[in-house]
Amino acid sequence: MTLHKQAFSLFSTSLLLLVAPHLQAAPSEAQWQAFSKAAVSDHIIPRYQTLNSSSAQLSLAVKQLCQQPDAASLANSQQQFHRTMTAWQGIQHVQFGPVQTLMRNFSLQFWPDKKNLGAKQLNVLLSAEDSNSLSAERFRTASIAVKGLPALERLLFAKDALSQYQTHPFRCQLTTTVADYVAGMGHDIVQEWQLYQQEFQQIDGNGYYDDTTEAVTDLLKALVEPVEVVRDMKILRPLGKSAERTKPRRSESWRSERSIDNMVANLEALHELYRTGGDNSPYNLLKLQGASDQAEQIELSFSRIIAQLKAIPMPLYQAVKDPQQYKQLQVISGELKAQTTALEGAMGPLEIQLGFNSRDGD
Distance between CA 231 and CA 258 in Å, rounded? Predict the structure, then answer.
C-alpha cells in the first residue's frame, strides 16, 4: 500500500471513529415494545374509556329528554352529544382492533355520507313510526347510516328538534335507540380492548402480530395517515374548488357547528400519540436517531396547526364563505400537507415501512 493510500485509510478510520459515537442503530426491539405498551395503556384504552363514559351519559341524557322534553333537557342532550363526539374524534385515528369488529367504526360515524343516506333512511324510519323496527334484533341489522353519531346529530340539532320531541313520541324512541346503540358500542370496544391489549404486551408470533415491527407499524399508521384525512376530507371538501364554489354542508358535523372542534380533537390526539412513551416515544426515538430537527419540526407543527384552527372565530361552514378565513384555511391545508410529508419522512430514520395506505384509491 502506498504512503498516500495508508494516510487516506488512517484518515477514514479516524473519521469513522469520530462520527461513530453520534450514529445510532435503529430503535431496538425493547424500545419499540415499550412504545407499543405505552401507546395502548396510556393513549388508546384511556380514550376508549372516555368514549364509553361520555356515550353512557349521552344515553342517559336522551332518556331524560324523552321523559321531559323541554329546552333544558334538549340542551343537556346536545351538550352530552358534543362530549361524546369529542371523545370519538379523539380516538378516531385508531382504525384497527375491536373498533373494526362488526364495522363499529362506520356505525359510530358514517361520514362522509356522499349519497345522503343518513337523511333518507332516518326519514323512512320516522315516517313509518314502526316500533318493531327499533327492537334490538332488527336495529342491529339496520343500515350503519342510522346507527351512530351523525344520526343523533340530525335528530338533536334539527331546527325544530324541541317541538318534534314534544309532539312525536316515536322520534324520542328512535333517538333513544340510537343513543343506546352508540353507548353499547363504546362499552363493548373498551371491554374488548382489555383483552386485545395482550397483542401488544407480548409479541411472539403466536398472536395477531407476527413481530413487534408489525404492531408498531399499525400504531404509526394511526399517527401518520389521519393528518392527510383531516386535510383532504375535513378541510378541502368544504373549501371546494375555489372561494366562489365552496361547499359548506360538506363540513363534518356542520349541524352542531363543531367541524373545527373535531379537527382540533383529531390533531391533539395525534400530538399526544407522537409524545406517548416518554423516552420511547416517536418524538424521542427520532431524536436518538440524530433527527432532532425533524422531531422538533413535527412537534412545533402540531402545536401551530392546532392554534391556527382554534383561532378561526366562526364555525367552519361559515368560515369557508368568509374571504379572510378561506385564505387562512388554505394556509392550514398547506401546513397539514407539510406535516404529512414530515411524518412520512420520519419513518426513514425510524426504519419503519408503513406500506399500503388505507386511503389509497379513495
Answer: 16
Is the Cα dihedral 56, 58, 61, 66 positive or negative? Answer: negative
What is the residue-wise DSSP string for 59-93? HHHHHHHHHS-SHHHHHHHHHHHHHHHHHHHTTTT
Cis peptide before 112 (omega within 30 of 0): yes
Closest CA to 270 of 240, 212, 237, 231: 231
- Which DSSP category does 320 fall into? T
Residues 6+ apart with CB under 8 A from 312: 260, 319, 325, 328, 329
Q: Is the pTM of this model over 0.70?
A: yes
Q: Average model confidence (pLDDT) for the chain?
A: 92
Residue 48, CB-side half-sphere exposure with 13 Å CA sphere? 28
pLDDT per residue as tens digits for the range 307-338: 999 999 999 999 999 999 999 999 999 999 99
Q: Cα–chain-centroid distance for residue 290?
A: 29
Say if residues 271 and 306 touch (Cβ distance below 8 Å). yes
